Amino acid sequence: MGPCTPLVTLFLLSWLQPLQGQQHHLVEYMERRLAALEERLAQCQDQSSRHAAELRDFKNKMLPLLEVAEKEREALRTEADSISGRVDRLEREVDYLETQNPALPCVEVDEKVTGGPGIKGKGRRNEKYDMLTDCGYTISQVRSMKILKRFGGPAGLWTKDPMGPTEKIYVLDGTQNDTAFVFPRLRDFTLAMAARKASRVRVPFPWVGTGQLVYGGFLYYARRPPGGPGGGGELENTLQLIKFHLANRTVVDSSVFPAEGLIPPYGLTADTYIDLAADEEGLWAVYATREDDRHLCLAKLDPQTLDTEQQWDTPCPRENAEAAFVICGTLYVVYNTRPASRARIQCSFDASGTLTPERAALPYFPRRYGAHASLRYNPRERQLYAWDDGYQIVYKLEMRRKEEEV
User: Fold this and answer.
1) What is the pLDDT of residues 127-148, one digit of tens each?
2) CB neighbour class for 128 (10 Å; exposed up to 12, middle 13-18, buried from 19)
3) Is the full-model pTM beyond 0.85?
């Protein structure tokens, strides 16, 4: 080795000593960090063990409660099934009793016979109606009910055009409005966002009540002229009938309804003054006047000119009436109570005289305790389109010949 070797060795030793000091500090730092991590892991394990124990205790406490709740739920379900079975049996018994003991027909007894003051004559014709068709059917029963959806407010009207070729659905919401919804088909109306699929038709004058009718491409409705019901003036308690072309959106004809002192025909539907109806024979109007404020009147209208062809005083009372419709020239009046209960056809009047009150069926509507704001009969489908507290309902009808016994 040369004379420079000791010098190199001293140099290397002096350079390595600082490195060894730094490594020693780094090792101590890493040991402290690992110790802190180990302490945190131990704390996490303790907390996990404690939480697991609490969950086990909670589970042990809840299992008996869940078993008790399940037993109570089964008991309630059994009781509900039992009550439903008893209700079904009771309704069958009530229906049987009704068939054995039908309600008394709506036949008025002249008060002169009983020594009373008598009924004042109205001077109307009250002649038998000559049928234009061979339609001779009457209702046997309301066979089924289908609730489609809830749309709009508690009062309104929805219908199809019984004379039109399309499947359009017409919805008139409210008792004083000027905008009708038109849906391309029933399927579009039943969608969740139905209003987006509808076109809107605005009429020039707001309608009154829920007595509107779509017939042959026209919307027939009653409007309150200035001074009409509630407005004072010369036209107090009179209404104007409007014939509105739905395609052209123009008023084709109008006429003041030829009856003075109009009052709501239905005791439970105070906003409707004239209820328009259509059947196999054409266009009809149900109304009432102060001259006889206890009973309904029926009129046959000309759908082309809105002229009144015939009028009848019916024996059907206004009290507790909520809606009506016409089938084959026979007026059927639906009655209810307040608060609303199960509706029933309790009076009928055949303008042609073929169907006697004794032969008329007086069926209940299927089990729904509501109030009908409107009923529209479709002669092509033999169905009723009902507006029941904002719900749109279809009733299927079962028919029989008028000559058949109940």
Assistant:
1) 999 999 999 999 999 988 999 9
2) middle
3) no
